[in-house]
Amino acid sequence: QVQLVESGGGLVQAGGSLRLSCAFSGRTFSNYAMAWFRQAPGKEREFGASVSWSGATTYYADSMKGRFTMSRDKDKNTVFLQMNSLKPEDTAVYYCAAVWDKRGGYYTDPRDMEFWGKGTLVTVSS
């Protein structure tokens, strides 16, 4: 069983930055593609960013392109989401998710993900 634990959320002013972390345990990290999703109050969970098992491929939602960067560290079994130029509309609970994959792909549909963390809250004030 995979365990995912997010951290790094908090309150930040618009234009600021945060770095989210997701610690992976329980299985072999390099066998899993990873993704970040987010859910704002009253809205459905939406895709944010994804990285392939090797880290060679990343994919971003349009809302995150150019501002957010997802990466993975195989030595720390951790994925990161560096968030810059934050906007009030980025306020949401951010979830880390994993799916077994050795094809090198990325994932954008939450229904494809096998394991989820409990989320970390990001609040951006205007």
Task: Give a written overview of the molecule.
With 126 residues, the chain is mostly beta strands. The protein is 0% helix and 50% strand. The chain contains no helices and 11 strands. The chain has strands spanning 3-7, 10-13, 18-25, 32-39, 46-51, 58-60, 68-73, 78-83, 92-100, 115-116, 120-125. Strands 2, 4, 5, 6, 9, 10 and 11 form a 7-stranded mixed sheet that branches. A hairpin with a 6-residue loop joins strand 5 (46-51) and strand 6. It is globular, with a radius of gyration of 13 Å.
What would you say about this model in short?
The protein has 126 residues and is an all-beta fold. It has strands spanning 3-7, 10-13, 18-25, 32-39, 46-51, 58-60, 68-73, 78-83, 92-100, 115-116, 120-125.
Question: Which labels suit this protein?
Answer:
seven-stranded mixed sheet; four-stranded antiparallel sheet; 126 residues; mainly beta
Which H/E pattern describes the elements? Answer: EEEEEEEEEEE
Overall SS class: mainly beta
Count of discrete alpha- or pi-helical segments spanning 4 or more residues: 0
- Enumerate the spans where pLDDT stays under 50 for 5 or more consecutive residues: none
- Rg on CA atoms, Å: 13 Å
Q: On the 0-100 scale, what is the average pLDDT?
A: 97
Give the number of DSSP strands. 11
Q: How much helix is in the residues?
A: under 10%
| Euclidean distance between termini CA atoms | 40 Å
Strand content: over 45%
The shape, in one word, is globular
State the major sheet.
7 strands, mixed
